[in-house]
């Protein structure tokens, strides 16, 4: 158990390809932290640097207060679960789990005790003498977790461990992972590209984009108060809608795309000095004007509606822009394509981002 | 699942495989049959007459201390060539697998010796090691080692072993490299996180996972050393000195074409045939089972 700290971490591959720059974060002891971002954003690189599988090009890395930049992976006292499981195919499940402990030189009875305990936790008892190829995907992933658990490491690292599994199994293992974290109380560092996985697992999320950390925060914090346009768009499904706002003369008149208008006062938008993106979530849109919270009025033409059961997602077109607007409404609604409709985004639901920097205003 | 083709005409499939069968019959079965047949006869040198002698060629063969010595020589030669060629090529493949820059150039260079004809490879080593004008023997003499493979049988055997192994390294290297590259990198990384040092990672993870390749190469190398090294020995030591490098396959030639004893030569061929059949059987029988995972 230990806290993990990264300070100004950077990675430059041979040929001056930069994967990560200036990444800093404090990960508390026992925290479940998720690194999330699109592919190629550098999240796996950070994880691999923490594991010691990639050399740290810049910055410092601390595990449990010790600087570990130059330690071998085996000396860092961490365990890792790989996307492709990385089980040793020529060894039985038991051997797989024993491997690290034997290398440590742990006494045999202790090894046996730890394996028995882990096998019970992960319901692997009957598979201990099988080879990995005789197991299903979900079982293999549990063996990989077992191999990590028996090591009793300072921190657990997970590199997209669920992405090779089907959707149903993924949901099931997600719950098991969460329960495992509660039971072990250990530090978990988890990489995924799936924002739903990140939201459901994490104590805190680190959102990454193009080699840099965009925002660190609790799932709800990211959802309610995204620090950048990227985070706003990345977190939440369906994704946030945006309209462009351009001040014609500073503070006097705001130019919005055709079909969008501000019927009443809205402090955030009215005072804009530079072009901005106004964001609003599909689930925050309402079809009736709200008293005292005028917000943004949108005159839309319905393109099509997706009926998902619990609710319906309407895709509609705003006359003045090419990006469609999505609206999440209750399932009784089923507007016909081509119909016109009006939707309102209350003032409190608007997120305003600087168009040039992407920062929240 | 294998897709099975069903022919409507029963004779068509036979016609399609006929050329292959014909070639096999004419160039493999017929000579083999001839060898088997003549191993039961004693024939005069010019082929005018022959006499049925039953198993006498064989009993004489196994009573001949020269032949038994040749068996031993072949065994030593085969094992040494196999071990040398495989261990060096494995080391080279492990090294090449770590090379990131100019990897293709490096690999291409390592593959070159395979393109050299065995006889030529023998001659190269013959010149290198030649007691009067070879550069290696010159170095050895400078080191105080008296090298003369014309006289010293052990040195001669050592020389043909090195030459034969050198020739086979490229081939083994290719297979080992392919084998190494098919081992997922994450396995080695997982082992590194599991506190295994580089040596332990190699012997407990990489080497066991290479076992199908290793076993295949073991058989191929033994077959090569036993049967394909004739031209190399013929071009360098001619089996000498004093039969020190006279391996079984060279002895077949020597008995038949130099000694004109066709019966004994045929009997020796049959023994070799039995040997190669046994090795092929072992290969087919166990190659799938020896796969560890």
UniProtKB/TrEMBL annotation, chain A:
Keywords: ATP-binding, Cell inner membrane, Cell membrane, Membrane, Nucleotide-binding, Sugar transport, Translocase, Transport. Residues 4-235 form the ABC transporter domain. GO terms for molecular function: ABC-type transporter activity; ATP binding; ATP hydrolysis activity. PROSITE patterns: ABC_TRANSPORTER_1, ABC_TRANSPORTER_2. Signal peptide: none annotated. GO terms for biological process: carbohydrate transport; glycerol-3-phosphate transmembrane transport; glycerophosphodiester transmembrane transport. Pfam families: ABC_tran, TOBE_2. Belongs to the ABC transporter superfamily. PANTHER family: MALTODEXTRIN IMPORT ATP-BINDING PROTEIN MSMX, SN-GLYCEROL-3-PHOSPHATE IMPORT ATP-BINDING PROTEIN UGPC. This is sn-glycerol-3-phosphate ABC transporter ATP-binding protein UgpC.
From TrEMBL, chain B:
Residues 71-283 form the ABC transmembrane type-1 domain. InterPro entries: MetI-like, MetI-like_sf, UgpAE/MalFG_permease. GO terms for biological process: transmembrane transport. This is sn-glycerol-3-phosphate transport system permease protein UgpA. The chain crosses the membrane at residues 12-30, 75-97, 109-128, 156-180, 201-227, 266-287. The keyword S-adenosyl-L-methionine does not apply. Part of the ABC transporter complex UgpBAEC involved in sn-glycerol-3-phosphate (G3P) import. Probably responsible for the translocation of the substrate across the membrane. It is found in: Cell inner membrane; Cell membrane. It is a multi-pass membrane protein. The complex is composed of two ATP-binding proteins (UgpC), two transmembrane proteins (UgpA and UgpE) and a solute-binding protein (UgpB). Belongs to the binding-protein-dependent transport system permease family. GO terms for cellular component: plasma membrane. PROSITE patterns: ABC_TM1 (PS50928). Its main location: membrane.
């Amino acid at each position: 158990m230990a806290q993990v700290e990264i300070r100004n971490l950077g990675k430059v591959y041979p040929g001056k390809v930069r994967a990560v720059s200036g990444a800093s974060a404090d990960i508390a002891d026992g925290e479940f932290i998720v690194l999330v971002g699109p592919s190629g954003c550098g999240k796996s690189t950070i994880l691999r640097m923490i594991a010691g599988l990639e050399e740290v090009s810049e910055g410092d890395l601390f595990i449990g207060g010790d600087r570990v930049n130059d330690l071998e992976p085996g000396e860092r006292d961490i365990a890792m679960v790989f996307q492709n499981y990385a089980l040793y195919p020529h060894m039985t499940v038991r051997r797989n789990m024993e491997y690290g402990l034997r290398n440590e030189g742990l006494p045999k009875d202790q090894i046996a005790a730890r394996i028995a305990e882990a096998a019970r936790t992960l319901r692997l008892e009957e598979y201990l003498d099988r080879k990995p190829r005789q197991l299903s995907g979900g079982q293999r992933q549990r063996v990989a977790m077992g191999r990590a658990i028996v090591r009793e490491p300072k921190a657990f690292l997970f590199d997209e461990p669920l992405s090779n599994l089907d959707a149903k199994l993924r949901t099931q293992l997600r719950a098991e992972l969460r329960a495992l974290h509660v039971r072990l109380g250990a530090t978990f560092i988890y990489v995924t590209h799936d924002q739903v996985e990140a939201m459901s697992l994490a104590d805190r999320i680190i959102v990454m984009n193009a080699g840099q950390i965009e925002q660190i925060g609790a799932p709800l914090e990211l959802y309610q108060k995204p620090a950048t346009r990227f985070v706003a768009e990345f977190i939440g499904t369906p994704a946030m809608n945006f309209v462009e706002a351009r001040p014609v003369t500073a503070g006097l008149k705001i130019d919005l795309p055709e079909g969008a208008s501000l019927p009443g006062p809205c402090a955030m938008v009215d005072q804009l000095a530079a072009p901005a993106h106004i964001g609003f979530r599909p689930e925050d849109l309402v079809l009736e004007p709200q008293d005292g919270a005028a917000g943004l009025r949108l005159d839309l033409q319905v393109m099509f509606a997706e009926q998902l059961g619990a609710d319906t997602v309407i895709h509609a077109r705003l006359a003045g822009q090419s990006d469609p607007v999505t609206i999440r409404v209750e399932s009784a609604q089923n507007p016909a394509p081509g119909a016109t409709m009006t939707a309102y985004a209350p003032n409190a639901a608007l997120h305003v981002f600087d168009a040039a920097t992407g920062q929240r205003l | 699942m294998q897709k099975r083709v069903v022919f409507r005409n029963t004779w068509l499939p036979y016609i399609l495989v006929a050329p292959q069968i014909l070639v096999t019959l004419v160039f493999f079965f017929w000579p083999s049959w001839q060898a088997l047949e003549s191993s039961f006869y004693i024939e005069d040198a010019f082929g005018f007459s022959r006499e049925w002698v039953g198993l006498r060629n064989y009993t004489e063969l196994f009573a001949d201390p020269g032949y038994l010595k040749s068996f031993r020589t072949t065994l030593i030669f085969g094992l040494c060539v196999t071990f040398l060629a495989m261990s060096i090529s494995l080391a080279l493949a492990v090294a090449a697998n770590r090379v990131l820059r100019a990897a293709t150039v490096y690999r291409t260079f390592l593959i070159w010796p395979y393109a050299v004809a065995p006889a030529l490879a023998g001659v190269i080593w013959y010149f290198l090691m030649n007691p009067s004008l070879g550069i290696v023997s010159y170095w050895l003499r400078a080191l105080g080692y008296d090298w003369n493979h014309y006289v010293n049988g052990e040195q001669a055997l050592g020389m043909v072993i090195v030459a034969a192994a050198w020739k086979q390294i490229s081939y083994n290297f290719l297979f080992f490299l392919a084998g190494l590259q098919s081992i997922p990198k994450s396995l080695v990384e997982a082992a590194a996180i599991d506190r295994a040092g580089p040596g332990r990672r190699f012997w407990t993870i990489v080497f066991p996972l290479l076992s199908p390749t290793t076993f295949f190469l073991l058989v191929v190398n033994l077959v090569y050393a036993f049967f394909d090294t004739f031209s190399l020995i013929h071009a360098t030591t001619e089996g000498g000195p004093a039969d020190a490098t006279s391996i079984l396959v060279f002895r077949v030639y020597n008995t038949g074409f130099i000694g004109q004893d066709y019966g004994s030569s045929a009997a020796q061929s049959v023994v070799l045939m039995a040997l190669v059949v046994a090795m092929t059987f072992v290969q087919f029988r166990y190659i799938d089972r020896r796969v560890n995972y």
